[in-house]
Amino acid sequence: VCSGDPWDVIIVGSGPAGIIVADRMSEAGKKTLLLEQGGPSYYTTGGRARPNWVDNTELSRVDVPGLYKSIFSNSEGNLTCPPDIVNSFQGCTVGGSTAINAGLFFQPPASDWDRYFPDGWKNSDMQSAIKKLGAKQPSTDNPSYDGKRYLQSGYVVARQWLVEGAGYKEVALNDGPENHCKSKVFGHPVYNYEGGQRSGPVKTYLQSALQRENFSLKTGARVLRVSRDSETATGVEVQSSGSNNATLEHCIKEGGRVILSAGAILSPQLLMWSGIGDSEILTNISAQGLVKVPSPDWINNTAVGDKVFDNPNTFIELFSEAISSYDYKFSDPVAADRDLYLQLRSGPYSFASQTSAFWDFIQQGDDVVGCQGTIDSSGYMDYMKNGTITLNVYGTSGLRSTGRVGLDDKGIALPSANFYADKRDAQAVATFIHNIFAALPSTLTPLNIAKNSTLEQLTTWLSTWSPYTMGNVQHWSSSCRIGSCVDVDAKVVGMKNLFVVDASISAPLTTNPAMGTMIIAERAVERILALKS
Ligand SMILES: Cc1cc2nc3c(=O)[nH]c(=O)nc-3n(C[C@H](O)[C@H](O)[C@H](O)COP(=O)(O)OP(=O)(O)OC[C@H]3O[C@@H](n4cnc5c(N)ncnc54)[C@H](O)[C@@H]3O)c2cc1C
């Protein structure tokens, strides 16, 4: 029995991709339902979780960029997914992980589309999607509302090291093809903020969707599976929050569509619970009653959940007498910085803590591997002494080691990353570090790895687990790739009207994934709307 009238399009998940798809589908006149299992995040969505110093403002903890890091230690506001929903650190709230992330907003280089995406998704095909995103979503590399740059001592030292020493070009990182090539470039991080506050799809696309009468957002609505009649999706089965095991059915009209935008870990789980995936996994979870479709109607596709990717992270602690470290606080910020933020949306709390970013590509035979460096304003773990900053080094595009989204014994998604399973990956990241270490000035000292380490020593160090190495950064992508899991229109292989549009369908990108995922969502909408049926 359908709950309410049927929809033209039902979208599962209000992350950046889901919100963009919902806005564009409703703009195209489709009667559109967006379902999100989590609750409010930004102030404008009803989010009120925040430290006392932000009381009496129209801000929640989500709106204040400088409260970003507190998400890892303070769960107030139920913004992250509980363990009975997914076995990883993700946003389960309006905006998905863009409501809890740092807001770093980097445009993937043109070479990513050309190298790693199929026909129809090459750089030239992506231009209209990139333009549409740029027109709708503000971003800035100078986030403080008063126009001044704060916490720049780390930038000055890094600039001297990488630009003057190592030959990186200092650029505006998203501007123009020659700058966003991400090839030996250095600059100020770009954030999707506006007016000293977090922006992102909730503040842009979602607001335009909410103006339309043919659009509806329902929160607290966890979709369990897609209902289907053989290869035709008919709707989704939803477990309403608070209700004990009660479910209801939202239906689509004949000719309607279901689009999964639940993220790179949960979209594969939804497919599996809907009887689409590796038959071995389907057999296991159907024994627990999690698959409702009879086995003859299962769609056996081992590409569901396969080759999931996250960036392997290495933290390098660097010390210089010339640096003043800055430690962000949730409850008790430095009074002057608190006032600067509250009165002028300016100062350190107008950004998440990163003060510079840079990229290079490492050539390995015919292959290239992208590497990214992002420098934070403080030390980490055992290295909190003033003068210390943290360099996060990520391996990015072109890495060969990937994992799999499996399910735990309760059927809940559990990603594996398999970092450096292919040794060439560790060698590529080590080469990136070795190259920049060669240019370290005498005034800047790495604290957790020797400055004069050989390439072999660096390779061994970064591929041996420690609190500083082999870390996940929760940039999950690539678990339902175009060509094997979905087709070039983002349609699930074997299904007529079921789609996946989120980080799942992206290849590993050279940059942090949010902006690329949003571009992909714009492109997928163009292709879906162009389909005949
Ligand atoms: C801590 C952290 C920091 C990050 N920092 C950055 C950064 O600075 N820059 C950057 O580019 N990227 C960053 N990322 C990654 C980036 O945020 C993600 O790549 C991006 O949000 C992925 O978008 P998505 O649309 O694929 O899915 P998600 O953002 O994962 O959104 C999926 C949404 O679907 C909902 N959902 C899932 N399953 C269901 C269901 N069954 N029923 C109903 N709703 C469901 C979820 O609750 C969630 O709201 C960060 C991620 C994390 C976790």
TrEMBL record:
FAD binds at V223. SUPFAM superfamilies: FAD-linked reductases, C-terminal domain, FAD/NAD(P)-binding domain. Its cofactor is FAD. It comes from the Eukaryota. Keywords: FAD, Flavoprotein, Oxidoreductase, Signal. Coiled coil: none annotated. InterPro entries: FAD-dep_OxRdtase_2_FAD-bd, FAD/NAD-bd_sf, GMC_Oxidoreductase_CD, GMC_OxRdtase, GMC_OxRdtase_N, GMC_OxRtase_C. Residues 91-114, 263-277 form the Glucose-methanol-choline oxidoreductase N-terminal domain. Pfam families: FAD_binding_2 (PF00890), GMC_oxred_C (PF05199), GMC_oxred_N (PF00732). The keyword Protein biosynthesis does not apply. GO terms for molecular function: flavin adenine dinucleotide binding; oxidoreductase activity, acting on CH-OH group of donors. Belongs to the GMC oxidoreductase family. This is FAD/NAD(P)-binding domain-containing protein.
